[in-house]
Each structure stands twice: as structure tokens, then as C-alpha cells.
Predict the structure of Signal transduction histidine-protein kinase/phosphatase MprB.
Amino acid sequence: MLRSRITWLAAALVAGVVISFVIPLCLLVRTMAEERAVSATNSDAQSVAMIVAGVDDPASLPAVLAPTLGARTATTTVALPSGQLIGGPTTTGPVTTGQPSSGPAQFPEDARLLAAVRADNRSMATTVDDRFHVLIPVGVADGVAIVHSVTDLGRVRRGVYGSWAILVAVGLLLVVVSVLVARRQSARISTPVVAMAGVAHRLRSGDFEARAAATGPVEVVELGHALNQLADRIEDLLRIEREGAADLSHRLRTPVTALRLDTDQVEDPTVRARLRSHVEDLHRAIDSVVADARRPSRDAMGGWCDARVVLADRAHHWGPLAEDQGRMTTVIGGSANGSASGAAGESVTGEHPGGEHAAYRPALVGLAARDLADLLDNLVDNAFAHTPEETPIRLELHVVDGLVVLRVEDGGDGSPDTVAFARGESGAGSTGLGLDIVRRLAADAGGSVGFERAGLGGLAVIVVLPLIERAD
């Protein structure tokens, strides 16, 4: 998602900046801590050396140094000329500050450093085994005393871990804050874009009143305006198309009506009947062309309907014509409820939705009621147009394995081999346009169209549509 990508990008950028600052800061804190420790060690050694130099009686040094050595940052000892150590640890354990003690130092390098300074009689500052030593020789009454201050640099470094933790915590806090801010800001971009995608899907599905809200950054607002202008243009084009189709219908039907009247003036009955048949075919072709021209403005709308209701409605619509032509029309509403048939010229529905059948189950398909009505009208019109009067017609609807099967058959002399299925093909006096509309409508709903020999003896057209769940 766009929002997640923007958030992750901001988090990565801020994390990179934080890392580039936190790591050097951590190293700087450690270096500064070491420098402070070294400076404090030097200061402690020099302070104690000044005190030792100012005492005339070496025997009083422990008492004088007692309060001083205990307050030092570094571990400080004073090695007297006699070898006694004042302060600091020994091999036997810590010595109480101010009490004389003897014996070698706890660390072997301390003894070596003391010996080196005593021999050279000059100050020394060095690091041995991660311990910083400052040794200052001081002249006293009975010889040379050495002030020795030591700081454990390893312990100093371990002491900065708390500062490091604070720096890392601050860095993580910055990353978290940046993620929250980026997520909020990205919503100002992603939310309008997602809404525009929804508007585009609604336009694709036929909701031409859908418009995008002009919110968000300037670029997103401009995109919304462009999408709305595109929707307006599509709506204008569809309106022009519908007006053109209506005008085409009006302009074509007028000369066809005049032609029909002229055919009635032909004296030869055979020629008159043939011309009248051709005029009727032309009239149906015009109706199909007009319906097909209007189709794009409705196909995109989608929708759903109860096929049982539409079947009953169209059977009722065609009933008067069937009665005039003496056709026996059978309507079967479902395989589970049987069928009913009427006498010649009757239109009988075997299952009426909402009637006396308590266990009525709708057969919902993914076509709008008007589109399914057009599909059935094209099939029934073909049956009426290409079969003689008094030819029986049967309409069936079955629900089988999640499929709605519509079957329209007649008792004429047609066969599956003579069907004009594609636009522009001709066979048995048909343009194929009506069946092409049927095929496309069925395909729009995810279905298919097939042909076979009818039980009545003529042609059976089978339309299979997926059964859908009830739409809210």
C-alpha cells in the first residue's frame, strides 16, 4: 500500500540519520569519559604530591593523607622511601587509608613502575593493561616518596553504557515519532488516492454520478479534478450516444412504416406476403440495432435480479401475441415444482414468485432485470419470427448445481446447425444480431449460450448463468 511504503521510507531515512549520529555520539561520550578520567588522575596525583611535599615529618604523612586519599577519584597511593605504602590495595587486601603497610603491590606492573620512577627520579604517565598510571616522585626528609594514582579505563568505559542507553533510547524515540508523523502525513496522500481508485471502479461499473473529493495535497487535488472531468466527459458522450440512438430509431421507423403500408398495396398475394415478411425482418433488425446502440450505457451498470420474476413477467408480456397466433406456450419456473401447460393460445406459468408456494426460492443472476428481459425478449422474438403461427413455444428455468439454466425452445423446423450466432452472419432469414446480444449479455453475467434440438422438435436455446447470493 502507498501509505505503508511512505511510512517505511520515512522510517528508513530517519533511522539512517539517527544511526549516523548516535554511533559517533556514543564514541564521543566514551572518549570524553576517558579523557576526564585521565585528567582527574593527573589532578589527583599532583594534589597529593603537593601535600606530601609540604609535610616535614614523614611519620605524620598517614594522618595528613587520611582525609585526602579517601576523597580522590583515582586510586592513589604514596610509596615512602622505606617501602611502606599509604593507601591502595596490597596482596593481603585493602589497607585502611592513613595506616602504613608494607609488602609488594597487588599488581606486578605497579612494582615495576615504582622501581622505574625511583630509579629515574622523574614523573611518568602511562597505560598498562587498560589501567592509566600517573607516578610523581616527591623529595621528603628521608629520601624520595612516589605518589601513584591509577584509574581503571575499562571500568570507565563500562560506566558510559548508561549514557549510550539514553542516546539509543532517544534515537528510537525519534524513529517512532517520525513513523507516526509519516503515517499521518502519508494518509493525506493515500486516503484521497484510494478514494479516487474507488471512484474509478464505480465509474467502470456504471455509476457515472461518482465523483472524487478534491482533498489532500495540490497534486492529488489536481488528479481528482482530472478524474471528475473525465467522468463528466464520459457522461456527456453516453448522453450523446443515447440521443443519437433515439434519433436513429425515430428516423428509421418512419420510412419502414411507409414501406409496410406500400406492401399492402401489392396485388399479388405471394409477393405481398414475401415483402411483408422482409419488412418485418427489417423492423426487427432496426429494433435490435437501436437496442444494441443503447446497450453500452446499460451494460456497465451491472446489477442483479430474480430470474423467476423476470421470466414470469416476459411470459405475461408475450402472452397476448401468443394467444392471437394460436400458440401453446408453456412456462416452467423450476425443476423441483413441476410445470404447467395451457391450451392453444394460453400462456401458463408453472411457478409464480410470492404465490402459493411457501418454499419459494429466488434464482438470482448477475444481470439487471431490464437486461435479462432483453435477453428473453430476443429469444422469444426469434421463436415468433422464424416459426409459423400455432407453433408451440416453451420457456423453462431450472436451478442446477449453482447454475440458473434458461431454456427457450420451439416446435419449428430450425436446428442448431442453421443458427446465426455472430453479428453480421445470416442464416434462415436472421441477421444474428439478436443472438449476439444474448451471447454478450450472458457473458457479462459470467454465463454462456448453447443450442440443441428441442423436445418440441425445433430449436432450443440454452442460457446458463451463475446463481449468485442475495445482494444487499
Q: What stands out?
A: The domain at 207-300 is CATH 1.10.287 (Helix Hairpins). The first helix runs from residue 2 to 53. Residues 90-105, 334-358, 421-429 have pLDDT under 50 and may be disordered. The chain has eleven helices and 16 strands.
